[in-house]
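Quick one, tokens below:
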């Protein structure tokens, strides 16, 4: 399993994560920030566990983020 961690409050709404992984990321119509679908909020972080085969796509989403607020851990 991998763990995707998103510090949503720092999101600038550039849509880069959504372009890399539209299955797991969406832009919010309320505040214009990205949202990690089906994630669990813990404090300021949104966390989602995914199977290992999702690593490359989520790593690309993290790499594309210009403010480096997405972390992917194995």
């Amino acid at each position: 399993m991998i763990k995707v961690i998103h510090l949503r409050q720092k999101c600038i709404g550039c849509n880069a994560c959504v372009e890399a992984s539209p299955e797991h990321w969406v832009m919010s119509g309320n505040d214009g920030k990205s949202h990690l679908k089906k994630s669990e909020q813990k404090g300021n972080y949104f966390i989602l566990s995914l199977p290992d085969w999702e690593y490359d796509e989520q790593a690309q989403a993290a790499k594309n983020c210009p403010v480096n607020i997405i972390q992917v851990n194995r």
